[in-house]
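Objective 1.3, modelling of assemblies. Example input:
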Amino acid sequence: MALQRTLSIIKPDATRRNITGAINALIEREGLRIIAQKRLLLTQKHAEKFYAVHAERSFFNDLCSFMCSGPVVVQVLEGVNAVEQYRKVMGATNPANADEGTIRKEFAESIEANSVHGSDSKENAAIEIAFFFSDMEIVG
Ligand code: CMP
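Predicted structure (tokens):
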């Protein structure tokens, strides 16, 4: 299967606890390569635009405030079947339902403070990668 790319965000609960390296160790152990990376403090505007698809959800405002509450690390991951592979490595959105050995089982604090985000489809991965990175910043 051809190489694919996906967007990863290490969320404020994880940067606050200084576990970005531990999370990336799991990502790399599972065969994904980090081919772009930057640490950012999102503005409310950025967060609302990035999560616009959830604008009607009851948790939207809390989600956007949380994503601006501290630094995030945004990354492009590359690998075989990367979108699905990274979703497996992350585990279920709610850590209470996440399988053993996944990032969220090991590190997430709650459904909101769930340590990582990953694109949910190949199409959204392309949109989300372009939201944060120019072609020049991605070095595969
Ligand atoms: P993420 O993969 O970043 O995509 C949307 C986020 O909304 C999700 O992870 C969760 O962290 C967050 N969220 C907060 N509350 C809920 C909820 N009740 N149901 C689903 N997602 C939620």
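The mean pLDDT is 98.
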